[in-house]
Design goal:
The protein has 603 residues and is α+β, with helices and mostly antiparallel strands. It is built from 24 helices and 24 strands. The chain starts with 5 loop residues before the first helix and ends with a helix. Bound molecules: adenosine-5'-triphosphate (ATP).
Amino acid sequence: MSKVSFSYVCDIFNTLEGTDSRNEMTEVLSNFYKELDPLDAQILSYLTLGRVAPLFVNSEFNYSEKSFISLLKDMSKSRDLDEDIDKKMEELGDIGDMLQYFTEKINFKSSKLTLQEVYNLLWDIVNAKGTGSVESKNKVIVDTLNKLSPLEAKYFSRIVCGELRFGVNTKTLLDVFSVMVVGDKSLKDELDRAYGAHADIGYICSLVSGKKEEKARKSLSSVKVQPGIPVMARLVERVGDFEEVFDRLGEEFLVQAKYDGLRCQIHKFKEWDFSDKEAIWFKYIKKEENGSLFEIKEKKSNIRLFTRNLEDVTDMFPEVVEAAEGIGVESFILDSEVLGWDEENQKFLPFQDTMQRRRKYEVTDLKKQVPVRAMVFDLLYLNGESLMTENTIDRIAKLEEINTSGGIAVTETIKINNIDKLREIFNEKIEEGHEGLIAKEKSGGYLPGTRNYEWIKLKKSMMRGLVDTIDLVAVGYNFGSGRRKDLGMGSVLGAIYDEKEDMFIGICNVGTGFSDEQLKSISEQLREDSIDEKPKNVVVEKSLEPDVWVEPRVVFTVEADEISKSKDSKYLSLRFPRLTVWGRDKGIAEATGLKELEEMYGG
Ligand code: ATP
């Protein structure tokens, strides 16, 4: 198969941009994928998500729209172009359109670069780090622009600035792969399972690309967990009362405290043995890091920490890394929740305090102020063997045999076989400051990315008859009036996720629960994400339309008095919603779902 040209990829991107219907998008992409060899298909999978590598590989471009504008100004000056770049940018409002306009004017000729050549250049931009990195990035970008057509320049610049937005996400791509192989979505379960165990979208794509159904199924079923590559986090269901836990889990089950921190998978491995044949991104990282993929600052390490969003947070929690290094076991994957720890009073800190540690810089100072501890509640892999299919009770027994200290501790697991005991432990955990309990069925393997009634949460708020907290995606904001207006905004329009349609439904404006500081910083953040028109993947009743639309990106948590349904609206809404946490560590597709909200309303 011939190597695909970047210009052809851009034609497809252009078609996608003009497509509103998800099915049509899936159709266009799957037909295109069929024409590609596995390597190009792998690259396309990362690129459509605006990346050069999977989510868990730190590979940001660190090149902003502003940097592009200043580059264009320099280029314009050196070519004696009489162009007011700022004014034109304001008029066009989009970096891709700006680049398209500019390259048209300069009349660059496309050198018909292949997708792989452009991918190489993109990595050169990512890999330019440290002193002089801006100049190095500029040089690669100018050299590349010289070889691109206006349409290619449009998409190239959008990728580099993180502005490539077709509304395609991982879930859409898994649908696309299914349609590519079998013509419909019937391969979705196998793809979900494989991706759940090995969350590298390009790798999963390369396994099925160019294969007939039987071979593709075989490849997918051979996918195994591997320390170093994150597993999709298992999620939990909710119930309304203690009795229902017994209905769901039977006479005897396990419970653990429900910690309110940051989900964190801790991986330890002896050697990285992922060849570049399997993962194209690997060789670029190797090149960058002198043969060692895993380097934390000066210290080489074979530990990696990942959030539930698949973000690599190894550098953020050195005390957890240190504790993991100290565990006398060669390889493992632990599932845990990281929480701030108050040494003096020997108790965990609230979520907001833990989140202060969610920073890449000044970690050493913060480590002293807010030390953290990873509370481990599951074991997915041990000493070269996957435990994914072992029963929960056996996995936990193996976990309890592991000696931990310092930044890692094993969660207490308690067997429950009567309702009084359940009540007693629940109250005990609430008194200790936890959110409640997670109840788990004794049997059954670890199901990645799955939410079902084998893992159940029992929370304080639910017990009081209130609605469980709800996670919304910010899709717009309103200016408000008076003091609010001066502080930056009055309210945020929050949306739930309609998983069936892959759309976000705006359900309520949230204006309570914000501090003045938050109003200022959040409105600034939202202003940066603002867009002229309603995003294609958002629906909302006319009466709720906000003053400003924003790109769906941030997930925030609210409490509400009740879920309501008004006669005038097709959608459910929340009564008296108030903010509890801004900026959850979740992807937008992990916000509260439509089905989930309907169940909560019905229940
Ligand atoms: P909530 O908003 O109620 O915390 P959520 O929507 O963030 O829930 P859920 O999947 O409903 O996420 O709740 C499960 C989360 O609880 C897990 O993602 C994990 O981060 C956390 N958690 C805390 N303690 C445990 C535990 N012992 N076992 C499993 N998960 C736990």
